[in-house]
Structures are given as C-alpha cells and as structure tokens.
C-alpha cells in the first residue's frame, strides 16, 4: 500500500472513531457520560497550509504531521493522534494539556491501532490483535468508562471518602508504573550510550594500537605509553560523564562549573556560570537529573547550534530553584521540533530532557521549557518548586 493509501485509510478510521464516539455521547444513554466531550485538535502543520481536523473533508494528506482529536474528562484527556497507518491513544492529566504533544510520552500510551497489510488485504491491529468492529466498539466504550470513573466527584462523608480513596488507587498505580517505566527506559538508554562511547573511542584507539604493535612499524615504549595514556584519559572522561564525582561530593553548582570549564577548554566556547546563592542539597535522583538536563542542553549548544557563548544561570530563592541555559547559536523552530519529538532525529535531546523533568516531578512540581527561534539562539529553562 502506498503512503497516500495508508494516510487515507488512517484518516477514514479516525473519522469512523470520531463519529462512533459522537453517537455514544448523543444517544439515549448519553447522559451516562455527562461531562465528557470530544473535540478536534490539530497541533502543527508541516507546511503553511491551514491546519485541519481529521474530520475535514478537504484536508490535505501530507501537510500535517499528526491528525488528532481528544476525548476530555474532568481530570484526564485521551489524546488520539494519527499518522500514516498508526493511531495512538494517550491518557494525559488535564493540567498538562497546554502543549499536548509535549507530554505525549510513550509510557502514557494506552493503546495503539496499527495498519498491517499484504498483497491483497489490510487489517487494523489493536495492541497486536485484529481490531474488528466489535472490538473497536468495546474499546471506545472502555475509554469512555475510564474517563467516567475519573469524573466522579470527591466524596464528602467519611464512608464516601474511603470509597473515593479506593477509586484513586488505580491512578496511584498508574503513576507508579509510569515512574518505573521511565527509570528502566533511562537505564537502557544509558547502557546503549555507554556502549557507543566505548566502541567509538576506547575500542577504536585500542584497535589502532594493536595494528601498530602487530605491523611493520615499530613504536617506541614512550609512544605506546602516550597512546595508553590517551585511552586512560578517554575512559576517565567517560566515567566522569556517567558517574560525576563532583556532583556526589560537592553538589550541583560545582559539578556544572567543572563541566563548563572542561567544555571551554575542549571547544573554545565562552562559558559563564551565574549562581550567587548557595544551593540546598536535594535528593540524589533530583540532583542527578537536573545535572543531566544541563549536560544535554550544553551538548546541544555545541553539537547542533554552533554556539560561541553559553551562559548557565542558577537562581535559588523562596523555595524555588530555577536553572536557565542560554546560547547564541543558530536556534531552531522550537514548536515544530517539540511536535516532532520521537522522530528519527531524536528531537536534539529534548525528549531525554522531558523524561528527566518527569522523573523530577515525582519529587517536586517542575516546569520545563525550551524557547528558540532561527538565528536567535536557544534558552532551556527548568523551574523546581521545593516547597
């Protein structure tokens, strides 16, 4: 099936799902779902053509990255997004829906519809199983029932409070599983990154040394020692990058200061740190993820932006910690990149920074933002409420 064929089939199913939900909400039993609404929602066009909802009859097939609609309850939203043979359903707290695509993490994906096809037939799979009309109808009703459960008002009496606490247990379990997933995901990503670092630096250098030692060219003892010293230095840098002793021993300010000094020596970029107040020691997981976010922003500024100047500002006052990383690099279309996070380019590390901000959110309320425009530089900011 061609790209346009997959896109057309995807939009047709989106239309059918939206229509069926409207039928449920407007039926004789629709009062059962009072407070639940369905509305169209399109975030980012890939061209300057007008964004259209998936129910528009004149929508262009290729001008929008994702077609969307959402099912809204009082506490949660089911964000439904579609693209070329795939429809995903995300369960997101209403409070985080200001930038919907910004919080559509994999661990919040409730279900996936995927189009599979062979030479003659095509079939939609719901979480890997054939999605026949009956299964799709049952799935949509389950989505509505889940939101209905979320919509139930808080109880007032003691007995009702007890019942309400029990009803909230699934939400607590859901967030617990999300945290576990994020931690395991980051562990696996870290292992992969360590493997690449070792392969591209240490192993490559050792292979080169082996060729020298086994070839006709004879190296002096001093040359071999220099080569081994280079390998040791690279291993030390890798160890420092993955297990920063400065952070453990001296805290966030000293660790960031050391990184900026090393970055300035290695790349020639002018780096500055502004931190007037002493910083409180935070839980180890919080400090580590704050440090990793700063590391990722510094890496982006050098690797992608071609920055000449980088400034890190750390401001702590009145139980609020704010970290800002600014550069004078080439900049980019921040909103477009946010909406493309998860594509093959990796979003220049934005997805990783978002995931780490979510981990910090398990301890403290946190706000994470990226501001940038082409030729105007980039600012990454993170605000943590320590109350």
Query: How helical, in percent, are the residues?
Result: 40-55%
**What is the string of SSEs from the N terminus onward?**
HEEEEEEEHHHHHEHEEHHEE
Largest sheet features: 7 strands, antiparallel
Computed Rg: 25 Å
Broad shape: globular
Structural class: alpha+beta
Mean pLDDT: 77
Strand order, largest beta sheet: 1-2-3-4-5-6-7
In total, how many beta strands? 12
Any idea how many domains? 3
Separation of the first and last Cα atoms: 55 Å
Query: Which oligomeric state applies?
Result: single chain
DSSP strand (E) fraction?
15-25%
Task: Give the helix tally.
Answer: 9
Low-confidence stretches: 42-64, 154-169, 340-347
What descriptive keywords fit this protein?
387 residues; seven-stranded antiparallel beta sheet; five-stranded mixed beta sheet; Heat Shock Protein 90
What's this, in brief?
Helices cover 47% and strands 20% of the residues. By secondary structure, the protein is an alpha+beta fold.
How would you describe this structure to a colleague?
The structure is a single chain. The chain is of the alpha+beta class and 387 residues long. The protein has three domains: 149 residues, no CATH class; 85 residues; 144 residues, Heat Shock Protein 90, CATH 3.30.565.10. The strands form two sheets. Strands 1-2-3-4-5-6-7 form a seven-stranded antiparallel β-sheet, covered by helices on one side. Strands 8-9-10-12-11 form a five-stranded mixed β-sheet, with helices on one face. A hairpin with a 3-residue loop joins strand 3 and strand 4. The chain is globular, with a radius of gyration of 25 Å. The N and C termini lie far apart (55 Å).
